[in-house]
Every structure is written in C-alpha cells, then in structure tokens.
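User: Run a structure prediction on this.
Assistant: Running it now.
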Amino acid sequence: MDGKRFLMRKPENTGSEYYDYKGHHSMIMLALVDAHYRFMYVDVGAQGRSSDAGVWDRCKLREYLEKEKLQVPPPDTLPFADQKVPYVIVGDDAFPLKNYLMKPYPGQNLSVEQRIYNYRVSRARRVSENAFGILVAKFRVFQQPIHSSPANTKKIIFAAVVLHNFLRNNSRQLESGNVGNGLENHGLESLNNVGRRPANNVLAIRDIFKDYFNGRGSVTWQQDAALLQRKQQNG
C-alpha cells in the first residue's frame, strides 16, 4: 500500500481546496499494488488540503477490510512455522498499524531484531514505490504538475493506471527494477507520516512477524542490509 500526491497547476475557482502541506496544489491517490507492479485498487480524487489520515479513514478499501467484506483468506501459518497470523498489507507510517496492515517500528532506538523487521518490510514496500516510478516514467504527463481541471486530472490518473496494468500484462519491456527513487523531483509527492496508537493485539501480531523474520524466516543477508540501511538513514 502506498499513497502519492499528484501535483497540479492551481485549478480555477478552487481557492485553497487543493493546496497541500508542502505548499503545492495536488490530488491524492492511494493504491494497493501486487507483486508484479500492477495496481489492484486505487482511490483517486481527494483534495490536496485533506489530511493523509483522513484520506485513509474515508477510503472504501479500509471500510471493506474493517467490515471483512473482502475475500481475504483466513489466518494461516507462515512457512516452517506453527503460529497462525493474518494475511496483511504492507504500508509505511502514513497508514495505521492494523491486524490487516503492517508497518515498520517507529523511532531510532530500535533493537537489532526490530531493525531487521523494518528492513524486511521496507524491502517488500519497494514494489509499491517501483509501481509509481514505472507509472511516472511511462506517462510523461506526471513528470510535472498537471495543467487541467480536477475532474480531468482524476480521469488522467485513472486512465494511466488502466494502461499501466494493461502494459504490465502484455509487455515484457516494462522495467521492474528499483525505479521509485527521485519521484519527488517529478510531479509526485509522498504522503505525510501519521502517528496513531495501535491496539495491543495488533502490536502482538507485528511482534510475531518480527520474531519470524529473526528466526525461521530469516535470510542470510538481512542483518548486514538492516545495519547498512540504518547507516544510510543516519547520514
């Protein structure tokens, strides 16, 4: 799961409706991406002045997940483990921690085990970052603020997503590497981080994944990669 602000030229007769916290005019898109860089769900149209937390709270995907209206498989055991966990979406700090949505541990004073968990989560999240990167690279309209009405801007974004998925399914020439970096130099901005207090049972689920990534689900390179990531974050 990821969200971006698509920059726009100031629409006529809209006042500050699309004016965001970074001083730009934008329209927000939330997206759920699969392992093949295809958009499974998108929510487009929220005005730039909307809070990032509020956009998620009004999202239909959140509503359906909370009310268990989607055909999500029941909790199952992780490979080579015996404890059941729910199927989850991976997000960043712009989203709340839920039993269906995992995100990194916050803060700087983290244990090695927590840093390894954060590395594994961030590694999985690269798929969504890359999907947005591919979208921007293929459709040049997003490489600068869109000069159109809000209604047309929404249609442009939806049309690009449909074409993106079509190309993912039918073309072998679309890049699949790490192309998410540098998006903010184009016509996209990341969402702001939102702090929320999760329930204790949700914290316990995150700890199960942490223990798994540091135990039976570990990979040989994760400790070095997690420590390298920490050094890069600290400059």
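Residues 112-138 form the longest helix (27 residues).
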